[in-house]
Every structure is written in C-alpha cells, then in structure tokens.
Please model this.
Amino acid sequence: MALHSIISPAKLSLLLLLALLSTFSEAKALSMKQKQTNMVFYMQDWESGQNVTAVTVAGIPNKRWWILGFGSVFCTDDSLTEGYDRNSTQVGRAHGIYVNSALDGSDLHLLMSFVFTNKAWNGSTLEIQGADRFYQKYREVSVVSGTGKFRLARGWATLETVYLDIPGANAIIRWNVTVRHY
Model:
C-alpha cells in the first residue's frame, strides 16, 4: 500500500509541524545557560512575644499542640533577614506550613515558599520541601522549584538553628541555600 494512501496530506503536515516545533524548543532549551546562586539568610520564627510569625493551627485532639508534639501543624509568615538580628534588613518572607511528623516529636516536615522582597530577587520565589530533624546541628532540605529569577530551580538548603527558645517556641534558623536555575 502506498504511503500517501495511509497518511493524508493534513496529517503529514501536522506531523512535520510538530517535529519542527520540537526542534525549536530543544534548541531554545540548549541555548539557556544554567546558573548557580548561593545565598545565606536567617529565618525569624517567633511563636510567642511581640510580632508572632508562626501559629499552631491544628493538632491531635486532647493533646498539647506545640512544636514538640506529634501531629501539630503550624502556619508561618516568617521574616527572612540578612543577619542574625531580628531587626536586620529583610530579604523576604517564608510563607507555608510545617508539621511535627515524628512520633517522638523530633522531626518537622517543611512546605514553604520563600517570597523575596529585596532588590536582587524581588518577586522571585523558591519552593522548599523536606524533613527538618531539628535536634541535629545541620539539616538539609530540598529546593524543588522556583519562579521569577529562580525559574526551574533545583537545589538544597542546609539549616542550622542559631537561637532556640523551647519554652517560648521561638527560633532563628540560618539557611545556606544553593540553587541551580535558568
């Protein structure tokens, strides 16, 4: 059977158009150069005192809802600052949730969007996900995506608690973030 009787001219034209578009898309992707950005900032997580930035929103009924309690869910709008001091220059906000997801209370699961407000990355975001084993000195979580200047970001972040007030449930976390993006 002849090829022209199996594939109509319209189908053949569509097939050629798709092949051509695929070639252009691949060429554009190859022309984009991957960049790496390294940044360090401090997350100011305050659950008590003035200007609270994180609150418990759910937990196990008839159990204490707190940072060390399995099943406790927190909503956060933490300031991301250049320095350790709470009043240092803000570079963005950490919006999201964290859940105490270990039966012994030793592990938080983070789901956060870092929304940058500083001049260099204003309007760009990084999406963070991972286990924060907060009893360890250093922990690592994933950067799973980004927007703006961090479009198609992938990477990791090392967390270090530099201040911890367990009775008040306040903390300052140093974030050392490495992202690869286009």
